[in-house]
Amino acid sequence: MKEKINSILTIAKEKLNSANEMQALEDLRVKYLGKKGELTGLLKQLGSLSAEERPKVGQLVNQAKQELDERIKEKVAEIKEAELQKRLEKEKIDVTMPGKRTNIGYKHPLSQVLDELKEIFMGMGFSVVEGPEVELDYYNFEALNLPKDHPARDTQDTFYISENTLLRTQTSPVQVRVMEKQKPPLRIISPGRVYRSDEVDANHSPLFHQIEGLAVDKGITMGDLKGTLETFAKRLYGEDAVVRFRPHHFPFTEPSAEMDIQCFSCGGKGCRLCKNEGWIEILGCGMVHPKVLENCGIDPEEYQGFAFGIGLERIVMRKFKIDDMRLLYENDMKFFESIK
Ligand code: DAH
């Protein structure tokens, strides 16, 4: 019996030495120590031994079981450690390696300037609202005092989705949408994309951006309009900016004007930038036409308002000294880097 125990143990140890995988170890454990294992089997045979031998052999078998059990556990620990080392080796990170550089972008010049304009107007109590780019003829023209046969529609030809639905040609329809919903006092600006069926050239694009402005309250005058827009110009171009208002015509304002800024390149003498005019036009404005107020259910006897429309591209082009509008849409990173 003793020899048998020893020979089982020796074979088991040899097999154990050459086992290098968890599954092989588990198989060995079952083979020798499991319920039907070889060593366990020996314990069952103890009954056939004499009362004297029984405890001795029993002890030997148990010792052998214990020894084998310990060896298996050691081996399991060894394999686990080896696996861990292997994984650590594989996942090793060299913290001294230079990192991958991600290029962090920056805001497009149009967005930079728009943010600046928003800040300026919000500082004067205006809030920012948005309106739809796909607009009804009613809001884009009709309610703004431009009936179907109005000649001013010719300069604002656009893309029609249906007879009465179009891509808005101006941000002015937002004035109407706001006045229909909110009652005065009102002070809003509304930036956004507008569309016209214009050929692309240095000064035209079928898609461009405007910022609409509207203030409605009791007793608003042309003085409020001039004060607000002059303050805006000074905040944007510096305290020494000089502006002038020229009479103009827009169907939805009366009186109407255009605001020019004295050319900051030549100080009004005339140069290439201002095309020798000394002045640069930056926006259209006027007192909201009584008919427009009426169309929105606001009594023109009680309330007055002023409105303005700024072309964003124009301001951006002046600011970054760009003479071709297309550069703003081509997204050539070399160009953007050069004006950064
Ligand atoms: N919507 C006009 C345009 O696109 C610009 C404009 C002029 C807007 C005068 C206004 C305004 O609100 O009062 O040409």
CATH class of the largest domain: Alpha Beta
Strand order of the largest sheet: 1-5-6-10-9-8-7
Radius of gyration: 43 Å
**The CATH topology of the largest domain is what?**
BirA Bifunctional Protein, domain 2
Main sheet? 7 strands, mixed
Shape: rod-shaped
In the CATH hierarchy, what is the superfamily of the largest domain?
Bira Bifunctional Protein, Domain 2
The amount of beta strand, in percent, is 15-25%
Mean pLDDT: 92
- Catalogue the ligands: 3,4-dihydroxyphenylalanine
Number of helices: 11
What is the helical fraction, as a range of percent? 40-55%
Q: Helix/strand/pairing class, anyone?
A: alpha+beta
SSE pattern, N- to C-terminal = HHHHHEEHEEHEEHEEEHEHH
**Spatial gap, N to C terminus:** 92 Å
**Assigned CATH architecture of the largest domain:** 2-Layer Sandwich
- Total DSSP E strands: 10
Work out the count of structural domains: 2
Low-confidence stretches: none
Detailed description of the structure:
The model has no long low-confidence stretch (mean pLDDT 92). By secondary structure, the chain is α+β, with helices and mostly antiparallel strands. The chain has eleven helices and ten strands. The strands form two sheets. It has a seven-stranded mixed sheet with strand order 1-5-6-10-9-8-7, sandwiched between helices. It has two domains: 2-90; 109-339, BirA Bifunctional Protein, domain 2, CATH 3.30.930. The relative contact order is 0.10. The protein is 41% helix and 19% strand. Helix 3 (38-44) runs antiparallel to helix 4 and helix 5 packs across helix 10 (312-319). The protein is rod-shaped. The site of 3,4-dihydroxyphenylalanine (DAH) has 11 residues, from strand 9 and strand 10.
